[in-house]
Amino acid sequence: IFTAYPRTAARLAEEDLIVSLDDALFSSAELALYVPQFIEEGRLSDGKLYVFPIAKSSEILVVNQTLFDRFSAATGISVDSLSTFEGIAEAADLYYEWTDSLTPDVTNDGKAFFMADSWANIALVGMEQMGETFVSPEKLSIDLPQYERIWQFLVPQACSGAYAVIDGHSSELSLTGDIVCSTVSTAAIAFYGNTITYPDNTSEKAEYTILPYPIFKDAKKIALQRGAGMVITKSKPEKEYAAALFIKWLSSPTQNMRFITSTGYWPVSIEAYDSSSSLAHQEKNPNIRGVRETTQLMKTEYTFITAPNFEGYDEIFKEYENSIKAVMWEGRQRVLTGEKVQDVSMSLLENFAD
Fold first, then answer.
1. Ordered structural domains, the chain, with CATH
2. What is the pLDDT of residues 328-348, one digit of tens each?
3. The predicted structure's pLDDT at residue 262
4. What is the DSSP string of 208-238?
């Protein structure tokens, strides 16, 4: 047994190295005990189930409420404005200007407001929110007007310094007070503590607010469903059967609830999934409790999509993530040398589209 995403399993299935879990190992009655969309995510192009779900996650907006409250008191901005990507961009501009104004003798030292653990996911999900598909085997849909809205969210604020763009995770910057909010996997909440430690080695307590994944204004409430699953390699029938028994045990309601307790993951059986809302009231960690409460709301209001699993998707997606970050870094350097933000953003878009 090993864990893998469906797009990895697809390559292995083509080489006949892994086992289909339908029929012989899992009956239709057994599969009916699990959340249908979690099971469907593990099916490949031949319609067979190869990746069995153990735990799932989505994405959320994590807000350092301690820092945001000071910002709000000074500017009047509300946390409600962070429900849309456009609202985040406006808040980021204002935060950079406000923090820059705190040191009038030093120019261009405003602080970043936002970071995404995956900038590419914003494009993937944002295009779906606006009714389009971002990535296909043939191309990225960066020539559509909907993508220009995504670009206008991503690039200008990165150029101005209002977003943080690093080769790392947003939790690292949150722990040092270098950002206020970030889009992350629900599972990543485990890396957020309750303290901010500043460069001068002073520290203070921090409280976080967990908000649903943002949407583009007037778009649909759509978020990403994530998470690898378990795959069984081809072997002797008795070994394959034993592996399936283990997966059934681990994904059973009692064991699955133990597995996901005190994490940002969702259980996969219908019984555990439906009863998981009670975990929020029992959870002592306020960050985990916030994730539970927010994802419970998202379950009722959002539609969840999964990443494509066609061959080559990983490479296309990683290349886009690296390319958009390189654009953001370049744009910031050009603005620091005196170029205007929108001029830089538009010239970068023209080159990016080529």
1. 2-56+227-276 (3.40.190.10), 59-223+308-353 (3.40.190.10)
2. 999 999 999 999 999 999 999
3. 67
4. EEEEEPPB-TT---EEE-B--EEE-B---HH
